[in-house]
Structure formats: structure tokens, C-alpha cells
Amino acid sequence: MALYPDDILADVDCVVALSLNEGGGGYAYDQSGHNHHAELGESGVGVPDWKTTGRYGNCLEFDGVNQRCAIPSTSLLNFGDAVADVPFSVEAWVAPGVGGTRSRDIISKFTEGGPYEWNLAFNNQNVPLFTLFDNDLGAYMYANLGNVSSHEG
Fold first, then answer.
1. Which pLDDT does position 150 carry in this prediction?
2. What is the pTM of this model?
């Protein structure tokens, strides 16, 4: 189920909602009400390009190498701890482009120098994968999400 801006604003459980359609500037603004705004790039490096050719207007185009949006770390993006897990959902609408020689992250939560807590990515064959680190096992769990389909409308 896709969320639209009015739905997002009404959903008290939504932690971060980035439309990535501002059309310019150095930030993507969080619509969830939590002010988890994303900085485009890092210190001017890895800044994605604004485009006007998105499905519904403005969008960001990432190079698949080092361009990113970064949200400061917050415990609201932790979906569990060593004691209890918390149900969660992650949603992204992307045009994956062409497969490459490595995987490309879509959205992830990690600590610099540490393991990913969770990660949604495309592998080099454009198959979406979800990875979750299990602290109890000290290991990653992987889910192959199947083939990407294109919907025209």
C-alpha cells in the first residue's frame, strides 16, 4: 500500500517520510512531523542531482556509486534491541536503472564502522534484497524480494 502525503501526516507511527521532490536545495524534508530532514551528500560530496523528469514531477537521481541522502542517527529508526523486536515497514519507490557489478543501497540504517542494522538494496541483477542484523545471533538475515516489475499507468 502506498502512502500519499495526507496519509503520511495522519499516520502517528510514521517515523520519517521523504518525498524527494523538493526540486532544489541541499535537503530533502521529512513530512512525518519528526523533522528527520535528510542532507543531500556529505560536506558537498556525493550530492545527487535534482531532475524534473520524475513520475510525478521533481525527483532525485543517484549515480549508484557514492551519492546519498543522510538523516542524523535517531533511536526512532531502531527496530528493536537486544531485548525486544519492534514490527516495522520500509517503503521505497525507485527506478533501479541498469544492473552493475555490485549491489546498490536504497535505504539503510547503520553506524559508521559498525554493521548495518537493516538495509534495502538492489543486487547486481536488480533483484531487491532486505538484510537485517540479528543481535541475538550475531548474524545477518537476508530476504530476496523477487524480481522488480515495471508498472505503467
1. 44
2. 0.74
